[in-house]
Structure formats: structure tokens, C-alpha cells
Amino acid sequence: MRLGALLLTGAALAASCLAAQGHQTLPWERISPLDWQVGSGSARVETPSEPLPSTGPLQAKLTGDGTLSIRDARGIIRLKTGLPGRPLKVWRDGGFPLAPPTGTWLFPVDSPLCQGLGGLLWVAEDFRPFLRGLLWILEDGEAILTVVHPATATAVHLPLPPGRDLSLRFLSDRLEVVAGEVDRGAPRQWSIPWIGLLPRLADLGPHADRAKPGTALVPFPKD
């Protein structure tokens, strides 16, 4: 009993110290789990995804330490943030792979999600064209998938199913995760339909109350 009380006291003191130091919850620490389904999901025959990546005046730069920045055509930084870990694998649009996983890539300002969920055809036979203009980043901890929308300078974090050496498959009706290594008896393959991700992807759309980017002369615009 004394040992248990001592451990509880230590945990309480540690939490108090973090609170006293102003510990801020990171975006990926407060995300709710996704409804990943065991197995490959639909047996639909696949059609080729969009063959060429999108392009445009927005510049997304990702460095090896996990720093991501988005610049507009004027060179103004619209977003600068850190990832949960270092980039391991990166895709763009509806699953176009980018190698190496660091570099600078160009993105459009008129992607489907710029119109919110109203710009998406939910019942489309192939949903991947509606993912144009997105950047998907798997970090080396392989627990979080970060999705970035350069056009709105926003990012969301998607919790992934358990496993190691994960790979993603962007299929016409779903996102599939395959683990190269799992604990004994654990599933190796998971999937979630695109419509199941729409509530999370909605946060990448435009927000009327979002602050406008500043400039060197007016760093904090008032209107």
C-alpha cells in the first residue's frame, strides 16, 4: 500500500510540475481514434488513380527534422509547424508517392477541399481525384499520419492502427494500411473508407473565422 501511495504521489507531483511549467498539449496528443476495420475492406476492382501530381504557386517544404512550412506565391509563410516525428514516407494528392520524403513541392490554390465538403462527391466511384492538393506524411514513429492542405494552410493528424514498417495504399474507395511487422496474433492489414475520414478532412477546409496571414509591415492584420 505504501509503495502504491508513493507512486501515485510521484505521478501527481509530475503532473503538477508540467502544469506549473505551462505544458501545452500537442495537436496529436488529443486526437480521438479512427474506426479502422481489420482486413482489406471492399473487393472492388481498382482503377488507375490520377497519373500526374497537381501543381501551383504554393510551396510546401519538409525538412528531415520534421519541420513543415507553407509559403504562398509572395513568399509569405502561411504555416510553420513540427510533426510528431521525422518524415518517413510522403504522398501527395490521391496517393502519388514522393521520394525522398523531404524536399520542396508545389501545390494548387484551388483544390476540391477549398470548397469544404460541398466540393466533394461523396458517392464517387473513385474518390482519389477529390484528394488533389493534399500532402500525406507518415512519421518515423509510425503512429500518426499527418495530412496537410497547403491551400488553407491547415493540418490534421490521423491515428494509425498498431504495427511497424507501415505502408499505405490509396485505393478508390478506402485508405488501406499494411504492417510489415506486428505482434503475434495481431492483424496485419487495416482499412477505412474515405467517407469515414470526411469528418477529419472537413477540418482542412476553409474557416470563416481563420486569421488572415500577416506581412512584414502588418504582422497582425485587423481585418
Spatial extent as radius of gyration: 20 Å
The spatial strand order of the largest sheet comes to 6-5-8-9-10
Give the averaged pLDDT, no decimals: 81
Strand content: 25-35%
Main β-sheet, in a few words?
A: 5 strands, antiparallel
Oligomeric category: single chain
Pattern of helices and strands: HEEEEEEEEEEEEEH
* Low-pLDDT segments: 1-20
Category from helices, strands and their pairing = mainly beta
Entry keywords:
about 30% strand; 2 helices; about 10% helix; about 220 residues; globular; 4-stranded antiparallel beta sheet; mainly beta; single chain; disordered N terminus
Folded structure, characterized:
The protein is 12% helix and 31% strand. The chain has 223 residues and is mainly beta. The chain has one domain. The strands form 3 sheets. A 5-stranded antiparallel β-sheet has the order 6-5-8-9-10, with no helix packed on it. A hairpin with a 3-residue loop joins strand 5 (87-92) and strand 6 (96-98). It is globular and about 55 Å long.
Short structural description:
The chain is mainly β. Helix content is 12%, strand content 31%.
List the helices and strands and how they pair.
Layout: H1 2-20, E1 37-38, E2 58-62, E3 67-71, E4 77-82, E5 87-92, E6 96-98, E7 103-107, E8 135-139, E9 144-149, E10 154-159, E11 164-170, E12 174-181, E13 189-193, H2 194-201
Antiparallel strand pairs: 1-13, 2-3, 2-7, 3-4, 5-6, 5-8, 8-9, 9-10, 11-12, 12-13
